[in-house]
């Protein structure tokens, strides 16, 4: 086990730890630790809501999830010798739930959760169809997840960090703030909002001096979106064995990460759609000097995915096109196409006895694949969603004998607010 | 070999064959043949432009590709006993280039082509960056494709039909025409157009009586977009061994298909982005009576993909977010995110010596995977594109020693018009 | 389709064809055709018994299978410029049943067979437990095989040539005859025999001049065993896309091949254990000059397996050790261990309703994997056999609810003689 | 993390731990802990030689490895309610090196070793060709192993327990002793021996009362061979996620396990051929009452392998037949065939610059696959060995340009004794 350079004590809040991380992006947040190219090290990660979501059968906590407090990030970690223009190589050596703690009140202690956010609290991919708040608790047994709220499915976790990235430069941060505010300004009162501006309330900025706090908190970017620095990419395939290359924008690179997922489907469609948890991650870092221009990687992350994630050979797939549920034709809108594909999958699963919310939660949490199948056939983009058939305890394929019927049990906890 | 119920003679034009197919969707196009549930049969398919694109080193044919003439479809095939409300099960038993003809003037005779369409002729996924016309010819050796226009890559074909579907009902057709015209009406003079309205010119309607031709040609839907009946889904994974379930909208189902691809990347991003070819397909059909309501599959196709397509264990992946090249922030636009991911991949490949067009053609034709990685992290959707590393003759991974340099050769033929 | 350089007419016997192949190994058998390095070409192959095994419900033909007549090989094909010491590169571009003939009396015309040979006619891997003759007929639908004699299983064929190799030199042939006769001499009257000596009766030697026939037929090696030249290796993974490297022992290499299998389990354990058929194979050849010494490949074939064979993610596996059924401990005998693993698998499958013979036939024909798991743990070698679970129509895994029961039907035809 | 029911302190010898395991099989060895069906629990495992092999550049420790002291097993674990005739279900939830200790003197503390045993100390699969002692030290970085003694290779570990099994009944133990002694008696002075009889010296028997020690130590079976109870099967695919079913021979089942491997090739051919280490394993147990007769599983283990082991799509494979190096023909000897296949692979790898011992160590430690390809083609069995090409830093495939040359470095430490 590599040295723990960012420890977390599960009995304490994120802000009360020996080393305090952050929940905003800003170049001035001081590094909590320094590593050298070639180093391996372990980092603890807190689940993104720092314990606000609990292991029970109510969705009230999801309904009132404190979005201004997220994401609880570990870091920044300074990499010696990293300069703007370099590529930072990050190898994910290992990643998992909180080691040595398989029960307790904190997600990652043997369990995790998936939430459907209420529309008034951010919503999810299908918020128009699912405006309420729902929750599912998943139990871990080794690498297998099952849920008392979603019977009939079990699967090996495709464990990964939802969020990892380097610090933005001041210039890059300014670009983010400018372009996101411009978007917000097009419909400032929208529910849910179009984007999230800097929010000083609940900002955690590591060991930033008190004197700088107000200014920096007023500038620092929210962590929800992925951006040029990687960030909250929610790429389920950043699993163990993956090598990621990040652009470096500030001296030392200042790598931060968090938002661990025990599993997630492509898209993380219920918003809090992965199986959220705290845990640990072991990393190895290195540099390609001047790699940004050498490889043309200057405003995105690239990666070589690992080869030990769960393997499936059989799938059932659903297609969708860019026509709204109301029958309106949209022009090559893959986002909409994927929504329609997911809704078709949900409709299908309900025929086996699932509630629509249970089906939606499965799509959020299980290792489904979302594909951009056709993007040029005007006016309809075609997206597809692939569900591994072996995650179900029953035969999920269509046949002349009709769908098997599961016992959906009490269902996913719901809170209408 | 199952019985050939739709033969094509490679020496004759599509309209001059013994049995004539069609290139529009309409419920009244008469079936060319009838099959029974449980039957297996072979169908020949003509490449979508019926020979207009030739095996040479010019892109003039791509520049002037006659879009009103596409797609040349085999069918309709009437399935005895199929009624609206049923699900039609189609097993793809086999699919390949024109059997017994490995050289000749027709795509599918041992070769195929990938085109980048000019912006004024429909464009492609990245038409703003690639407004001109380009072409690559691919040679087949067994299941392996290589191209004199794109050196350094070779891969096993993921052979599939780009287009397959059932006939729409009159009501469904009317819905299509209504909603697509409404979209066109929002910007009727756009280049390229938002959608393609019915086009009597060059309409081929099988054995429809002369007396009905004008009316039906004026109503019949163009075949470019995928719709509720399946259609031009361009799903690369509809490969050998796949079972597809289509909704049935008319008595007899009236299945049609065509647009065979020797290979394609997710999205078919260059528009004519697959390796286009004619060939054969062997199908087996069956029915699930009343399956549309039983399984909730009423306005989309679902499928169980085959298990004999090419297998890769190592990939290089690129992410993109929904910020335009001009720096404008868009709201959760996965279509844009995938464009950016593809552009990042193209930039990367140019560092190895490829021209941007060669890189673009690789993404269109090779079995890349396009994924919807994050769709809820406002305001940025995250899409990723995965390229199998083993398709390259050289090591395509980033390293401290910098990119290997290929000899790009004369490059992809270009026609500026 | 590459040029057919060795055509077969399904209505004629192997010896009555336009070009006549051979069924023995000898350096003096004249080439039937010459190809050049870089050439692609098609070869037809006759099933190994040339039609003696028929599509019916009796095993009399298996009981009396004419072993002296096999294998019916296509070739030899001379490769221009090949010299002893070179490596011959053979790419398997495509391979399949008889094209364009999906019904008829010849295996490969839409069907194939698996036989359990009677002990007095050669036996199989488990001949002490299965001394009688049995047969199963398999029907092909696309790449899928099913059998009326073995219900409840279906699988995609892992199509491959059971036999391919270069001609031996006179010296190598002499070595074979010497060492095999020495083995036979240790127990000359054994049933089944230890090895098969040269057998002039039924020898087919292509276009060898009459004057040489008697001498050559008396020297020529039987084709049953694999040897330094490749030969009857029965490696199921020599599927489409595979590249094989053979040592060259005579000028021109003189490549021959045959014994096509629609599918086979590792070991081909029922002797005639694959799904036997005739068909076609498309090859591409090239040379590595002096490759035998350069790569140390002088008395075996090496290969790069293809990547489009059927893919499975879930298996049930059985182990065996080198203790005989009578309880005798043998020393590190992996052959025995694999027998015991297969017998354990057969016992297990009978609990689901299969007859032992049906289970045995499944292991012969389906794409099972046989592994040498432990070979050093004195005195017990450990071998394992892996069966893909998805080939069964039912859940084949052990559970508290006990095994599902299939209807075994009339079972596999049996002939006691 | 499940509760640790068998802890090990890395600073103490195996016999000095709080709970003491065992290194012989006997029904009377008392359970160290009791679990219930449905329980999950963690077990620590000591590497098989309890620290006798060290992390240095000498093979003296391998030369003198104390074989009478192995294997250091954790257990026995009594399962409440288990009765003879039941099947014990064991789920491998997780398995890995010593948690929290990534450096130190004990294999499993961030490193492991592979040894080639000297012929006079047991030898290995190819001991006639490799009679001396050799060693390679492997370093772990996450799930990746590399070795300073074997440059140019790195691979993800296929981590698994080499040994797991239930206690034999008195009757079964007597059977083992009887049949193994009978084998020894056929050549009692052979070097290496044919089998290992009970050996009181260095027997560790847990908490067995002193009064019974001498008798039990004189009866207890050695742990080297796999037998009816599972035992030292060295099946590399018993990786995380695997479910194993063991016959139960005594009340409580009395499960024991150990001999963890960070990786291993099929066969574990160098004898100490895996990457040996200590570590932890998390298990979940359950029962199928009377499962032995229900499923016909009475003298072997069966298993459903996990789906998260390392995945490869490209391999280079070598075949071998049952002819000895001296040219003697053996009858269908798959063991010999695999030896010849491995020797061919070793010859091949030396052409790239490896010493034969380095190549042999790669085959022992890397996730190679050993297959029984043909077992009926008298007189030659055909075995094949598949090596994943991506484990090499260079292109290991044959080509016209000849083999790349690695720098083999100082090579594998050797001790001739």
TrEMBL record, chains A, B, C, D:
EC top class named in words: hydrolase
An example molecular function term from Gene Ontology annotations: formamidase activity
Keywords linked to the UniProt accession: Hydrolase
EC number(s) given by UniProt: 3.5.1.49
Pfam families hit by this protein: FmdA_AmdA
UniProt-listed InterPro entries: FmdA_AmdA, FormamaseFmdA
Domain of life, per lineage: Bacteria
PANTHER family assigned to the protein according to its UniProt record, in alphabetical order: FORMAMIDASE C869.04-RELATED
NCBIfam families, per database record: FormamaseFmdA
Name recorded for this polypeptide: Formamidase
Organism in which the protein naturally occurs: Nakamurella multipartita (strain ATCC 700099 / DSM 44233 / CIP 104796 / JCM 9543 / NBRC 105858 / Y-104) (Microsphaera multipartita)
């Amino acid at each position: 086990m590599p040295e723990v350079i960012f420890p977390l004590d599960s009995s304490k809040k994120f802000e009360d730890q020996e080393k305090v991380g952050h929940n905003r992006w800003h170049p001035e947040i001081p590094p909590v630790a320094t590593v050298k190219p070639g180093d391996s090290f372990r980092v603890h990660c807190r689940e993104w809501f720092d314990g606000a979501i609990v292991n029970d059968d109510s969705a009230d906590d999801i309904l009132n999830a404190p979005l201004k407090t997220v994401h609880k990030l570990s870091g920044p970690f300074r990499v010696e010798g990293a300069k703007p223009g370099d590529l930072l190589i990050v190898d994910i050596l290992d990643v998992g739930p909180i080691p040595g703690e398989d029960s307790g009140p904190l997600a990652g202690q043997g369990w995790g959760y998936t939430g459907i956010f209420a529309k008034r609290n951010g919503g999810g991919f299908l918020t128009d169809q699912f405006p309420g708040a729902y929750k599912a608790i998943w139990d871990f047994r080794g690498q297998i997840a099952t849920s008392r709220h979603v019977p009939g499915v079990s699967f090996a976790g495709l464990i990964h960090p939802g969020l990892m990235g380097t610090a933005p430069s001041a210039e890059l941060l300014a670009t983010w703030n400018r372009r996101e505010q411009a978007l917000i300004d097009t419909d400032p009162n929208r529910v849910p909002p179009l984007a999230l501006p800097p929010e000083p309330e609940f900002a955690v900025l590591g060991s930033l001096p008190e004197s700088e706090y107000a200014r920096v908190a007023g500038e620092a970017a929210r962590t929800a979106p992925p951006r040029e620095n990687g960030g909250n990419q929610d790429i389920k395939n950043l699993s163990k064995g993956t090598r990621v290359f990040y652009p470096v924008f500030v001296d030392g690179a200042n790598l931060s990460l968090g938002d661990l997922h025990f599993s997630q489907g492509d898209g993380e469609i219920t918003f809090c759609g992965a199986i959220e948890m705290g845990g640990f991650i072991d990393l190895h870092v290195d540099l390609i000097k001047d790699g940004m221009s050498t490889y043309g990687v200057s405003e995105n992350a690239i990666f070589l995915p690992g080869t030990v994630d769960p393997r499936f050979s059989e799938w059932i797939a659903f297609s969708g096109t860019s026509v709204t549920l109301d029958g309106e034709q949209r022009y090559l809108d893959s986002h909409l196409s994927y929504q329609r594909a997911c809704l078709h999958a949900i409709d299908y699963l309900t025929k086996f006895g699932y509630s629509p919310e249970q089906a939606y939660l499965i799509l959020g949490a299980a290792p489904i694949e979302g594909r951009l199948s056709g993007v040029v056939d005007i006016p309809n983009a075609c997206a597809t969603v692939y569900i591994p058939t072996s995650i179900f305890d029953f035969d999920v394929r269509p046949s002349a004998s009709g769908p098997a019927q599961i016992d959906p049990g009490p269902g996913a906890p719901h809170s209408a607010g």
